[in-house]
Amino acid sequence: MVLAMVFFSLTYAIYKLANPYISNNIILFFQNILSFLIVLPYVLIKRTPLVSHKFRFILFRICLGIIALYCITHALLSVGLAETVLLNNTAPLFTPLFVWMWVRARPTLHIWIGLIIGFIGVFIILRPGYLTISTGLVFALISGVASGAIPLATRKIAHEPLSKLLFYYFATFSIVLFPFLFFHWSSPPLHIWLLIALSSITMILAQIFIVFALRKASPIEVAPLMYTGVIFSGILGWIFWQQKIDLMTLLGMVVVCLGGILTIIYSIKEQKKI
User: Fold this and answer.
1) For the purposes of burial, counting CB atoms within 10 Å of the CB of 186, is it exposed (0-12), middle (13-18) or buried (19 or more)?
2) Which of 171, 158, 139, 149 is nearest to 223 (CA)?
3) How many Cβ atoms from other residues are within 10 Å of residue 11's Cβ?
4) Which tops the pLDDT comparison, 2 or 105?
5) In this prediction, what percent of the chain has a pLDDT beyond 90?
6) Three-state SS at 78
7) Is the pLDDT score of 198 beyond 70?
8) At what angle do helices 109-126 and 247-267 cross, to 10 degrees?
9) What is the reported pLDDT for 274?
10) Which of 182, 210, 206, 223 is nearest to 98 (CA)?
């Protein structure tokens, strides 16, 4: 999971680097079509069977991924990398709520306390009434909501052949985003194409490691490690954009992480129900 967060952080940093030169939809399309072309030979060589009785879970996970990535790329237009990744990584706060809906496992009082602490941290970061809440922050938070359900869907399909999961993931993304080529086309410089090509590799690696993580442990067990993405993104934001985090935002990050970790600790008792 830590390795997955490294590669997700690198992917989001590439999005932010490319944003001034090319639209989000074009970035995502070419990233996913290149990823698909990289994965396709492996699928053909291995003769991976593409039929699955868990296809509904595969499709559900892909839909969640589309929502999360679309929101992240829009958030990065106006929000710092670390803040975007932090709000995306509020996912562990939403995971117990999705577990509740998924398997009717009602959160305990201790879990609710952890959730409330985490959402207080989100409130500190957003500071409604004191700061103008940008659409970027809202998009980043929506990506966290969508990401909260992804581990549950991934856990259901984690033992499917990895090549099959990657094939459907990148193929569906490419099909959904293809129409945007006709509305948002622009011709960026060569180095942006190279960055997009690099992002296709980092995204493949991120997907591989997150599936590996969820083959070995439940979503609740690995969720605390998602917060390492905030550290990696903070370092990348400082290196590339000299982004500094103000004291209140830093406090909010600490509170969100504390709430998320407490939620996860108390949710471990429910892990066998997932």
Assistant:
1) exposed
2) 149
3) 21
4) 2
5) 13
6) coil
7) yes
8) 160
9) 47
10) 223
